[in-house]
Write a structure and sequence with these properties.
Elements (H helix, E strand, L loop, with lengths): L16 E7 L5 H16 L5 E7 L11 H9 L15 H5 L2 E4 L2 H10 L8 E3 L20 H23 L5
Parallel strand pairs: 1-2, 1-3, 3-4
Helix pairs in contact: 1-5, 2-5
Length: 173
């Protein structure tokens, strides 16, 4: 992906686009997406004003670091996500974030159920940013082996690239 920095008026800072990645427990898929997107944005579009976070629809793992298997796969690709901690999706997130990206249909429905009506249009499936892969969901790897964690990484990397191109605008495509 090639993104050329665009000149911008330093007197008028661009407001940050706020992106929230959502899965069930916030220790596998959504922190992987957060870390991958954060890394891509820093490397390929450092001029892009973006704030990124992740959350889970359930409170199973609040305060915990990402699953060790997810961290191992990310580290194998040069991405450290050890600083992230799980939290639960809350109603205030829908006002704060511009895009709320669910990892699968179940978390999409859960997010929509929690969203105030005026913010429901902000909720999307993350894989919409990688239509060429012809899958709408990032599989939950929690009860699976390392190959599924690698698949999650690959899917999130593709969708994160599509999201970054979308946020950077037509000049980056």
């Amino acid at each position: 992906m090639s993104l050329q920095p665009q000149p911008r008026d330093l007197a008028a800072p661009t407001p940050a686009v706020r992106v929230l990645f959502v899965c069930m427990g916030n220790i596998c898929r959504s922190p992987t997406a957060q870390a991958v997107f954060r890394d891509l944005a820093q490397r390929l579009a450092p001029e892009l004003a973006v704030e990124v976070d992740s959350a889970g629809t359930h409170d199973y793992h609040v305060g915990r670091a990402p699953d060790e298997r997810a961290q191992e796969v990310a580290l194998a690709h040069g991405i450290d996500m050890s600083d992230l901690r799980a939290r639960q999706l809350v109603r205030e997130d829908f006002e704060r974030f511009d895009r709320i990206l669910a990892m699968d249909a179940r978390t999409y429905r859960a997010a929509l159920a929690l969203a105030p009506p005026q913010y429901r249009q902000r909720v999307q499936l993350f894989m919409e940013y990688a239509p060429h892969l012809q899958t709408s969901e990032v599989p939950d790897p929690y009860h699976c082996g390392p190959e599924v964690f690698e698949r999650v990484f690959q899917l999130t990397e593709q969708a994160a690239g599509g999201l970054l191109r979308d946020l950077a605008g037509p000049e980056a495509r």
